[in-house]
Inverse folding.
């Protein structure tokens, strides 16, 4: 059978690649189309002639996917399945007339079983992980157990993107995942919801074997070229024993510069030494906010200022770059509290940083907190969330406009701390257009430095992205 994946964001999603690999191994065909805003999605479907169409959506991209699915259904009687994080936490989207199936959680074996049954003409209403609409009834199936042995999966099928989108294929740094699951329960992350959804369904945190990971990296390097690696796991440094063993093999067989993430509280001097020896270029660390009380009590991130300062000191002293993630417009945040985030990032001398505006996605602890405390309307429409989290947020705050302006000047304050008093003053001015332009310029510059790209390549990415719906 032939599956057409449709998406509206220029990114090679690991989940899609993994599902594609499993389906192709079983003899099915898969094709990806990233929709250009000037394209007619029905023409894409006509030319591809698929047996089933799959959308993988975040909450922000779901409205676009839904609109496209409606256009498709108006002309074709082809089954449409929605998966991804939004479908997992909001399976009620199956009530939409254009959605036939919703896949929740890990999709590899659920999708494979679906195609097997469709091919044979068997009943598809009892497949675990799937909600299926059939003859006016909605069949809500339980979750299947986690995939316990991740090594049994084929390597992610990158060709579904790389064969059609050379920009993605030619990126010098490519993303890899070492495992699945995260033990922490930050209120701004979907992780806790996933834990509850899969309760009693097996080990939540799973790792691939070192040999399996190394072999995938070597294969990607040979087939597509590889100059640097981004390990995108939330828990890269969670197990010291596993990490040290992996780094030893990585150093011997790969030794390319790599970026990884860690929680500040996990970082030790011994760990930093091992990471540096294995050619770690940069470590990403969640600061989230410069105010310790907010970070712990509202965001549920049990990292003190001191633990972050200690980790940053070890990272910087070893000659490893430091990247931080941050948010503004948090419930109850004032302009002065937002300014603390700029000051703190400057204090730890972050080389790269990301600062978005809080997005209250469905079923998050932070979303419930915002509603319960009057910072978010109870009838808030999740479909109104934008595609990018840098420019708008529905959180209601007294100093909201000033805080949003500060977020646009975040890079400036961290790179040049002497500008912080100036930022405090000018952020009160109604200069949104100017602040937005400054932010875009600094974002592009920072993105290029972090990914070790020249500005021309980053501008090409921006041009590609502007073409999308």
């Amino acid at each position: 059978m032939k599956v057409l994946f449709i998406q509206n964001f220029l990114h090679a999603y690991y989940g899609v690649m993994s599902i594609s690999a499993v389906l192709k191994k079983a003899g099915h065909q898969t094709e990806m189309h990233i929709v250009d805003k000037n394209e007619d999605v029905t023409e894409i479907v006509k030319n591809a002639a698929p047996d089933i169409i799959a959308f993988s959506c975040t909450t922000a991209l779901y409205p676009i996917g839904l609109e496209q699915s409606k256009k498709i259904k108006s002309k074709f009687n082809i089954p449409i399945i929605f998966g991804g994080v939004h479908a997992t936490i909001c399976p009620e989207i199956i009530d939409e007339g254009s959605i036939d199936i919703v896949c929740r959680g890990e999709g590899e074996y659920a999708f494979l079983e679906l195609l097997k049954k469709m091919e044979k003409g068997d009943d598809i209403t009892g497949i675990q992980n799937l909600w299926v609409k059939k003859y006016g009834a909605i069949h809500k199936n339980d979750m299947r157990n986690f995939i316990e042995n991740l090594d049994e999966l084929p390597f992610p099928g990158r060709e579904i993107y790389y064969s059609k989108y050379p920009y993605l294929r030619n990126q010098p740094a490519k993303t890899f995942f070492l495992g699945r699951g995260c033990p922490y329960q930050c209120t701004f992350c979907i992780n806790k919801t996933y834990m509850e959804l899969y309760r009693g369904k097996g080990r939540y945190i799973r790792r691939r074997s070192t040999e399996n990971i190394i072999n995938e990296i070597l294969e990607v390097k040979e087939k597509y070229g590889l100059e640097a690696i981004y390990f995108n796991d939330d828990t890269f440094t969670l197990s010291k024993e596993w990490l040290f063993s992996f780094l030893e093999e990585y150093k011997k067989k790969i030794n390319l510069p790599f970026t990884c993430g860690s929680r500040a509280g996990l970082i030790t001097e011994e760990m930093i030494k091992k990471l540096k020896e294995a050619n770690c270029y940069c470590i990403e660390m969640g600061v989230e906010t410069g105010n310790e009380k907010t970070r712990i009590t509202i965001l549920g991130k049990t990292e003190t200022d001191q633990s972050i300062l200690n980790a940053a000191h070890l990272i910087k002293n070893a000659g490893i770059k430091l990247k931080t993630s941050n948010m503004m417009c948090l419930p109850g945040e004032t302009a002065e509290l937002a300014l603390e985030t700029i000051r703190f990032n400057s204090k730890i001398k972050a080389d790269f940083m990301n600062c978005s505006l809080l997005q209250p996605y469905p079923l998050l602890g932070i979303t419930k907190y915002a509603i319960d405390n009057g910072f978010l309307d109870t009838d808030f429409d999740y479909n109104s969330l934008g595609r990018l989290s840098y420019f708008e947020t529905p959180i209601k705050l007294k100093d909201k406009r000033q805080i949003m302006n500060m977020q646009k000047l975040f890079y400036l304050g961290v790179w040049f701390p002497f500008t912080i008093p100036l930022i405090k003053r000018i952020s009160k001015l109604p200069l949104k257009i100017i602040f937005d332009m400054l932010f875009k310029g600094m974002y592009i510059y920072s993105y290029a430095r972090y990914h070790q790209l020249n500005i021309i390549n980053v501008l090409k990415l921006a041009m590609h992205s502007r073409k999308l719906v």
